[in-house]
Write a structure and sequence with these properties.
The complex is a heterodimer of chains A (432) and B (442). By secondary structure, chain A is α+β, with helices and mostly antiparallel strands. Chain A has 2 domains: 12-216, Cytochrome Bc1 Complex, Chain A, domain 1; 239-428, Cytochrome Bc1 Complex, Chain A, domain 1 (2-Layer Sandwich), CATH 3.30.830.10. Helices cover 41% and strands 18% of the residues of chain A. In chain A, a hairpin with a 4-residue loop joins β4 (83-88) and β5 (93-100). Chain A is globular. The mean pLDDT of chain A is 96. Chain B is α+β, with helices and mostly antiparallel strands. Chain B folds into 2 domains: 16-217, 2-Layer Sandwich (Cytochrome Bc1 Complex, Chain A, domain 1), CATH 3.30.830; 240-439, Metalloenzyme, LuxS/M16 peptidase-like (Cytochrome Bc1 Complex, Chain A, domain 1, 2-Layer Sandwich). In chain B, strands 1-2-8-3-7-6 form a 6-stranded mixed beta sheet, sandwiched between helices. The model of chain B has no long low-confidence stretch (mean pLDDT 96). The chains are: A alpha+beta (432), B alpha+beta (442). At the A-B interface, α2, β5, α3, α4 and α11 of A face α2, β7, α4, α10 and β12 of B.
Chain lengths: 432, 442
Amino acid sequence: MVKIPAPSFELVHHTLGNGLRVVLAPDRSAPVIGVGVLYDVGMRSEPEGRTGFAHLFEHLMFQGSATLEKLEHFRYVQSSGGMFNGSTHVDYTDYFEALPSNALERGLFLEADRMRSPRITEENLANQLEVVKNEIRVNVLNRPYGGFPWIYLPAVLFDSFANSHNGYGGFEDLESATVEDAKDFFRKYYAPANAVLSVAGDLDPDATIELIEKHFGGIAKRSRPRRPDFSEPPLSAERRAQHHDAHAPLPAVAIGYRVPDPVTSMDEQLAYVLLAEVLTDGDASRLQQRLVQRDQLVTEITAYVGQFGDPFDERDPSTMTITAHYGDKKSLKPVLRAIDEELDRIATDGLEPGELDRVRTRLLSVLLRELDAVLGRTLTFAKFELIYGRAEMATELPARFAAVTEDAIRAAAGALRPKRRAVLELVAGGAR
Amino acid sequence: MTVPALTRPRKPRKLALQERTTASGLNVVAVRKPGVPMVELRLRIPFLSGSASHPARAAVLSDALLTGAGSFDRAGLAAAIQELGADLSVSVDADRLVISGNALATSLRPLLDLLAVVLTEPTYAPAEVRGERERLVERLTIARSRPGVVAAEALAERMWGRHPYALDLPQPDAVAAVTAGIVRSMHEQWVRPEGATLVLVGDVSPARVLDQVDTALGSWTGAAPTPRIPALTTMEGGPLLVVDRPGSVQSSLRMGTSALTRSQAGYPALQLANLIFGGYFSSRWTENIREDKGYTYGPHSRIEHHTLGSTLMFDVEVASEVTAPAILETRYELGRIASLPVTEAEVESVRQYAIGTLALSTATQAGLASTLSALAGVGLGLDWVLEHPARLSAVTVDEVSAAAAEYFAPARLTSVVVGDASAITTPLAALGPVESAGSAEA
């Protein structure tokens, strides 16, 4: 087996008096830095009747702040030679910049300014409501396969509002959001103690901590909200549903299964992550060989853990999904049968010699490669600090994956029974 | 609180680069770029041809290239690559075929050995070519159900006429006619080292990498083909073409015109003019139709580079009911930047943005490899990246205004909109001449 080098990054930790947790990952090889703030609130925490609110609120965080007028945040980042963005996840929301390292203090100031007080006004809310509706039109409503399966599968696989609702939001819910809702959401969830600040790249740790104290230290301490228990019992009988897509020319299917708690049962969950690679990563994988090459039933098939394909991005409950695209809707039955047979084969006969090693080697080099970009490092360390309580976990993954046994993968395959799955069939309504 | 000033910029470390043209005419560029212990690979092979059957054949070749080589069957080849912690993939467009890959730095030599087998002994088994051909037809069907693809195809046809650049995706019937024999002879004729460029960037020693390439790829030989390449056609503006896509809740506007290439003297000024107009978030176009009016999730303008020339391209998706007002504002911003000078503050902002984001995009192994590979296609190299900040620094406000006046004039642009024609045609006709095309989903 090829030896996988463990990523070597020195990590520095610090916690401010107001509870803000800080992770620094210095690396002076290029004069660039990443600044990321992750707030411990995502789509799962939005109130009933306010689907899509966490994401709409993310947009409002860019509309000006304590010191800055609307548009100034963007202009300060970009005229410093940097780029910015934010994204809303199941369990958290992130805001980040990649900048030349001479803009370090400016980047910290910009994040602190909106953590102190974003400028939430009727006018900004009305404007961003239209922007978000257009985002949903371009990504979902006007696009074939838009939102498939991430918006529609949770409604089949889960029961609670928190886990099953559309995180992009229905237009009616979005339109009924108020400035008061936004201010409440900010007060409750955007406390310094509910966030992680991560800075990576060309920085001196001591000087950076001083700058962080200077800009974030004065933000008032507020209590950290208690995170509700979002867990749900596993499925005991198969569930099926259809999703009609007016623009899609060809049918598709998404099959969802629950996976073990990514945080408290990490070693078990990693077996599912490797199983997904065994099933569909590359031309040597089980389902590519069987369904694409041999049976020629599907055009594409992909298995992944985590709602957006990142297994380390969410807490319990989490999902493994298999999606397949095919030309003929009658293929659904043989596709499901073939997946069940291949899972059975793994559960019963185990893996081929060398199969686990090569799949694991490739997966670890993919994870390593994601750490090359300064922003990738910034957000990865922040995410592991927020969800796992340890940024170091990012560098320990090779060892954790190395400890996963073939038996654990067989057990994972054996647990993916038909009665444990939710099957969402995409019915193609578009012209061919 | 006031916004902190920028501190003194730190200079990037000097990169160690070595270059060599092998006996068979392959240009090899190796760069040591420490970071993670990986290496990135880009093999760029010129693929531009004026032949009408070429695009479909090239697409099938690209999809079938990794379906077996030498003693490896398809799964065996994939397993051998995976074992190295590596990946190889193939893509093709009108200009070039690119084999992209990455591997653990310690696995570069065995990856080059596998690449050599793929280049010199591809199998193209008839069953694999047939399978890939059928999958490609289905993927093309899916691609053409996207409004952006419909709009891009309609615009390309208007801009390029009969030139190969008009054909971004091949037609299904042309794909269906491609056999394994055709693909094999195309590989024989086109997949040649002469004129191709192999870029390797990562935690590696450049001198050693050049020797490894010499040894591993020494058996890959052959002269480049000499295809007939038609000259670019002249583009003209013309009326707005409306392509019907019934049931659309948004309209997809695409516009384009010819632009300067990276080697031309006026390029840095045009690059800055484009950023001011719609090339970054703080642009006039975004601040107007997104942040003020909420008509769209985001408009974008960009300069695209082809081997034979560059283009200035615009794209935006707007809600159907505001299609005409969004186009009115777009034309207002075009007219404004073409007829009134830009400001010094605008130029300073985009200058820093252009310099900073060039540094960011070349600060990773993958980013630097892709940049060097693209530059190699037009005869440029690392020097261009290193010297470009100085060129951007030297641009004056007047030069940016002059570039904007020439390239952003609304009359110069070819324009297409894809949307629900029954809802948008009448309001659009109030703004100026429109022309109707057939339905996208007919």
